[in-house]
Amino acid sequence: IPLFACEILEVGVMRKLPGFSKRTEWYLEHRQDLTEHIACLRSPGGSSDHEHRLLALPSRERLVRVLRYLLDENEFLSPYGLRSLSRFHRDRPYEFHANGQTFRVDYTPGESTTGLFGGNSNWRGPIWFPLNYLLVEALERYHHFYGDSLKVECPVGSGKMLTLAEVAQEIARRLASIFTLNEKGGRPC
Questions:
Q1: What is the pLDDT of residues 58-98, one digit of tens each?
Q2: In the chain, what percentage of residues exceed pLDDT 90?
Q3: Tens digits of residue pLDDT in 145-175
Q4: What is the 3-state secondary structure (H, E, C) of the chain?
Q5: What's the Rg (C-alpha) of the chain?
């Protein structure tokens, strides 16, 4: 979810907002203690109106690191999109101990097996379209900034290097495949 927090600001637009631009520059210069772990990068290039700035929570390195988990089919990537909880937890449920009680979150890709959270299992492993949609949009924004200079392996272990736009397209393709007919004329859903 922190990957969703990214925006591209075009310099031409920022010039029309001098107060905002001034405060942004001041913040970046004087509050490095708060900005050292986020990406606030300028695109290469001069002062063209087409230059842009990325405002995002993860730095490039952290983005790549997180994508290694998201694009791993043993973790989040499924044949039908991204899971809301890593498949890793299928065999290793998350447990939290407090006040002599054990609370457990299992990987449950279908209907919930517990009434916890009102029985809603969206956070326990199924493909959840709203989250996938937001990630696809974010990946497209990251690609707008990084372009073809940033490629990641998708799926992890395949040796196939894709741009972030191509990763977004691959996730969208996997999501759509839930509804497309397979070779037997049926749908996975």
A1: 989 999 999 999 999 999 999 999 998 889 988 998 888 99
A2: 46
A3: 999 999 999 999 999 999 999 999 999 999 9
A4: CHHHCEEEEEHHHHHCCHHHHHHHHHHHHHCHHHHCCCEEEECCCCCCCCCEEEEECCCHHHHHHHHHHHCCCCCCEECCEEECCCHHHHCCCEEEEECCEEEEECCCCCCCCCCHHHHCCHHHCCECHHHHHHHHHHHHHHHHHHHHHCEEECCCCCCCEEEHHHHHHHHHHHHHCCCCCCCCCCCCC
A5: 20
pTM of the predicted structure, to 2 decimals: 0.82
**Six-digit token pair at 139?**
């990946």
Q: Bridge partners of 39?
A: 56
The residue among 129, 128, 127, 139 whose CA lies nearest residue 67 is 139
**Closest among 85, 66, 75, 72 to 150, alpha carbons compared:** 66
Report how far apart the first and last C-alpha atoms of the chain are (Å, whole number).
25
